[in-house]
Structures are given as C-alpha cells and as structure tokens.
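COURSE: Structural Biology Practicum
ASSIGNMENT: Worksheet 4, Part C
STUDENT ID: 0417
INSTRUCTIONS: Below are two proteins. For each, the amino acid sequence is given first, followed by its structure token string. Answer the questions at the end about the second protein only.

PROTEIN I
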Amino acid sequence: MNAERAHLVDAVLQRFFSLSKKRATPLGAHYEHLWGLLERNTQGGKRFRPRMVMGAYAGLGGTDMDAAAYVGAAFELLHTALIVHDDVIDRDFVRRGIPNISGAYRDSAVDRGVATDIAEHRGVSAAIIAGDLALFNAYRLIDKSGVGSPLRERIVEVLDEAMFASAAGELIDVDFSIDPGMPLVDDILTMERLKTAVYSFETPLQAGAILAEADEEVVTTLGDFGREIGIAYQVVDDVLGVFGEEEATGKTTIGDLREGKRTVMIAFASSTPAWSRLGELIGHADLTLAQADEARDLLVQCGARAFADDLARSYAQRALTRLAEPCIPQRLRAELHPVAETVLDRVR
C-alpha cells in the first residue's frame, strides 16, 4: 500500500482510538489502559487488509479514498480482534517479540505478587474483553465511513462473511490440535482458507470492489483471486514459521515445531519414512534448538518443504490466472499483480 493510502488508514484508526480512550477515561484508568494496549496491537502490522480494500477500489476507478480508508480500517480492526482472540486460544503471551494484551496483564499481576495461574487468567480475561471491543467496532467503522445504502449493507454482509468463515476455520484448527490423527493436506488448506484467507484477502478485495460499484462478475473474480493468493500466502507463512528468519518474520521459528502445528509440510512428512523420527521430535514444549535443526533437516530431506513451496507457487499462479480474466481492467491488474509477486518472492 502506498504511503498516502497507509496514512489515511492510520488516521482513521488514530481518530477511532483517540475518541475511544476519551470515552473510557470517565470509566476509570484501567479501562483507558486497556484501550491503549488494544491500540498498540493495531500498530506495526503489514496493513494487508486495508491494502486489499483500497487497491481494489482504486483499481476500479474509485475516488473517495477517505471512505475506502474507513472500510480498510474496519478490516484491520477485525484482524486485530481475531489475533487477540487467537493468542488466547493458543495460550500465547507474546506477539512480535513483546507482551501481547494477555501478557501485559499477566506480567503486571505477577509484579504485584499474584500467583502465576491467577495472573494468566487475568491476562486472558482482559484479552477477551479487548478482542470483543475490536470486533464490535469493526462494524461501527463501516457505519462511520459515510457510505450510503445499499452499498453499506453489502459491505457489512461481506465483513460478516469474513468473521463467520474465520470462526469456522479457527474451530477446525482447535480440533486439529487435539486430534491424534493427521489431517489431510486438503483439510489443512480448507482450514487456512477459512481461518485467514477469507478475511485477509477474499472479502477485503470484494469490499473494495463493492464500494467502487463494480459488476458482480468483477466482485466474484476478485474473491477467486483472493482465495488462491490467500491460500498461497498461508502455505508460505507456515514454511517461514519453521525456516524463516526471526528478524524478518517477527516470530520465533521454533514455536510451530514445539506445538506440533498441523501444516501442509507436516501432513506431507507424515506420509514419508522421515516421520518415524520427525514424529518423535515435534509437539514437545521442551524441544531444543538442536532438535529443531534436526526436524528442519528432516523436512527438507523428505521433500516436505519442496512440496509446500511448489504448492504455494501453484496457488499463486492460479491467482494470476484469475487476474487475467477479461472482466479485470488493466489498472486493477497493475494494483494486484504485486500481491502475487510478493508471495512468489517469499518462496524464491
């Protein structure tokens, strides 16, 4: 997203949080503090969702970038809500190298002498409240965009679809974590599409197209593009979660291995002879750095990493094919082609 568009989205979020903290002040310093932590959780991200909204809107000739910024900010706030709740589900207390909302409240309680289990409960409780606030207000930002009916109702429906699908994907992921069996690659791709790709790519693109009053064929095709590139992005993200550089990704490269996270790579590896050893290594909280390196070597040797890389490239190429549809104007292709290239660059 170019600097001007990013500035517009940031301005919307800054105004929103400024007003929210002002409203919270009469209700107590603790509540204002929670809003401050929630605001911090919206900062420092890639702004992928607003980029999809505003790229689609501008590429289809839209000119009211202020309205588009509100819609983009709504999807960013939805993203914030989902990752805050996801951290609760995953029992994570750190994000991007610093305490998340759960971690901040847990740590402050521990500093006051509260027992660890009670402090952790306090942390996750605060995070649930914060995520609820972000979720509800994502819809409120659409209301404040100035977009009239019936476009506003259609955009709200798209935002609702994003939330509805993500909840389904999250539930599937939760079930994966306790299932002793290994899900199929297709099942993992379905989970990743529902949990992340729908709200990060498919529906933001469609919202931008709806705002630009595009033909239904364009809205549908952009959803198809978003589905393919979103799946590609998630497959790459899982690869980088094991093989990436922590300085670049902002997250540990041992966490997924310790968790035994069900990814395309792990599903593939489970069908190879390497699994007899790899299955013993992953899924243990005390996995050492040396054992993690051994697990990475096994994922390479058995072809799991190459399989995931090839799969990501295939989905990215399918996404580019959707952009070549006659209904997609050249200006929109120019806006979105770099998105696919970014995914391809991550696996080169």
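PROTEIN II
(use this one for the questions)
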Amino acid sequence: MSVTIEFPPDIEATLRERLARGPQNVTAFVVEAVREKLSRSQTLDEICAPFAQSVATASVADDELDQLFEEARENVWQAKLSLRP
C-alpha cells in the first residue's frame, strides 16, 4: 500500500532530526512505528487475561471477587470524597 502523509512542521522537524542520527529511512521508520502501534492494540480480553488466569489459579470464588471489587470501588469513592473542598 502506498500512502502520502502530511506531517505538522514540528513532527517533521523531529522526524528529520531522528532519521539523521540513524540508518533508517522515512519509509522504514514509519512502517516500524505502525507495526509497533498495531502490536499494542489489544482487546479487553487480552488485557485482562493475566488477571483472569491469576483468579482461576487462586480458586477465588465469584462472591469473594465481587466483594474485593466492591471494597476497591468504595475505597476509591471515599478517597474522592475526601478530596472535595
């Protein structure tokens, strides 16, 4: 795929400075940046997978997990209330 990109002047200047220091050309740099961005895009299930695995391994009951989240939510709410003038 071929794409034409119009960078704002500040980004273009920074990009030119960065490329002047290294062996990459603009195309290689942009392709690498897009690859990195795409690889970071995760679904909520993917983000939560380590937590879900930990819960499953710890054999935490649903009601215990509900109570943990309710306590955490309440703690955050109380902390926010204490910050009000």
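ANSWER KEY EXCERPT:
Q1: The chain is about 75% helix and 0% strand.
Q2: The longest helix spans residues 62-83.
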